[in-house]
Write a structure and sequence with these properties.
Blueprint lengths: L24 H13 L4 H9 L11 H15 L13 H16 L12 H4 L26
Length: about 150
C-alpha cells in the first residue's frame, strides 16, 4: 500500500503506523485516515478500497452522499469530482436523478449553463477556421462537369 509492505502484519490486525514515503502521499493519507476513522483491520481496509481501485467510496442516501461531497468540497479544497458509479447506466442515472438535485438545492451544482456549447462554458476561444478564407493567390476551382 503506497509502496509500504504490509505482509509482515496480521490481516485481521489494525493498520500499523506507516513510515513516511514519497509515493502517493495524499492517497496514502486518505486511506490511513479511513482506517483510523472507521477502526478497520488491514483486511477490512483492503476490502473497502479494492473495489474502487483506491478511490474514495461514498455510500448512503442522496442527502448523505451530498453531505460527504459538500464536506470534501468545502473543507478539503476539491474543485470537482469524477463520479464512478458501481454499474452503468443505472448507477449514473440514479446519481443524476437523486444526488444532483440535492447538490443544486445546496447551491453546489449549477442548474443551467450560460453558454450554448461546451467550448463557451469552459471559456475557450473559437479556433481560427483555416478553411473560412480564400487567399488572393488562389483561384477558385470549379467542381463538376462543364457540359
Amino acid at each position: 500500500m503506497g509502496g509500504v509492505d504490509l505482509s509482515g502484519y496480521p490481516l485481521d490486525g489494525p493498520l500499523p503506523e506507516l513510515p513516511d514515503t514519497e509515493l502517493a502521499k495524499s492517497r496514502l493519507k486518505l486511506v490511513t485516515d479511513l482506517a483510523q476513522r472507521e477502526n478497520l483491520t488491514i483486511r477490512e481496509l483492503y476490502l473497502a478500497i479494492a473495489g474502487a481501485r483506491g478511490h474514495r467510496t461514498i455510500l448512503g442516501t442522496p442527502q448523505q452522499i451530498a453531505d460527504q461531497l459538500e464536506d470534501w468540497f468545502v473543507n478539503n479544497g476539491a474543485d470537482g469530482f469524477n463520479i464512478m458509479p458501481p454499474y452503468l447506466p443505472g448507477g449514473l442515472d440514479e446519481f443524476v436523478e437523486l444526488v444532483i438535485p440535492e447538490l443544486q438545492r445546496r447551491g453546489l451544482f449549477r442548474t443551467e449553463y450560460e453558454g450554448r456549447t461546451l467550448r463557451e462554458n469552459l471559456g475557450l476561444p473559437r479556433p481560427v477556421n483555416k478553411f473560412s478564407k480564400v487567399t488572393a493567390s488562389r483561384e477558385p476551382v470549379a467542381v463538376g462537369s462543364s457540359t
